[in-house]
């Protein structure tokens, strides 16, 4: 069962791997990133951040959706980490269940503005998030489980 979809453009690193493991008790991580799926060095770095005893899959968007819809995954607690709002939108809309979306770190770029101190977005990103929320997806902004979650409506002013 998918417990959470998280956006973090760094994908899997110590903070994500261990703080969320304690919170969710996940048994498997599915990393969804077209670029990481093709980059052997990046895949090796991600594998090093994985907690012991946790299954890990690094897939492009299409392969990830097929994997997440596989009935064998229903018996596992699964944590999904994606690298962008666009990827999250693709994955969430392809699933058969409404999964909570957690927005973690999205780095600053020239065409982005802060929606939260740790999440920089474009106007298109904001609209995509608004559309997801309007379609019934629960969206929260927080870096680590102990942070107080903020809702899109609080930040999107």
TrEMBL record:
The keyword Disulfide bond does not apply. The keyword Transport applies. One of its GO terms (biological process) is phosphoenolpyruvate-dependent sugar phosphotransferase system. Residues 1-157 form the PTS EIIB type-4 domain. Its main location: cytoplasm. It comes from Vagococcus silagei. It is found in: Cytoplasm. It holds the Pfam family PTSIIB_sorb. This is PTS mannose/fructose/sorbose transporter subunit IIB. One of its GO terms (molecular function) is protein-N(PI)-phosphohistidine-sugar phosphotransferase activity. Keywords: Cytoplasm, Kinase, Phosphotransferase system, Sugar transport, Transferase, Transport. GO terms for cellular component: cytoplasm.
């Amino acid at each position: 069962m998918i417990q959470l979809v998280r956006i973090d453009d760094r994908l899997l690193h110590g903070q994500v791997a261990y703080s969320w493991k304690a919170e969710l008790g996940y048994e498997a991580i599915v990393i969804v990133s077209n670029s990481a799926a093709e980059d052997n060095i990046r895949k090796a770095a991600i594998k090093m951040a994985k907690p012991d005893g946790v299954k890990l899959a690094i897939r492009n968007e299409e392969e990830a959706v097929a994997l997440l819809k596989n009935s064998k995954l229903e018996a596992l607690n699964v944590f999904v980490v994606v690298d962008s709002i666009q990827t999250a939108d693709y994955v969430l809309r392809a699933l058969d269940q409404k999964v909570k979306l957690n927005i973690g770190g999205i780095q600053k770029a020239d065409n982005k503005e802060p929606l939260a101190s740790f999440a920089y977005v474009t106007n298109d990103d904001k609209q995509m998030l608004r559309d997801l929320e309007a379609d019934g997806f629960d969206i929260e902004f927080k870096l680590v489980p102990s942070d107080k979650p903020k809702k899109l409506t609080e930040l999107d002013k």
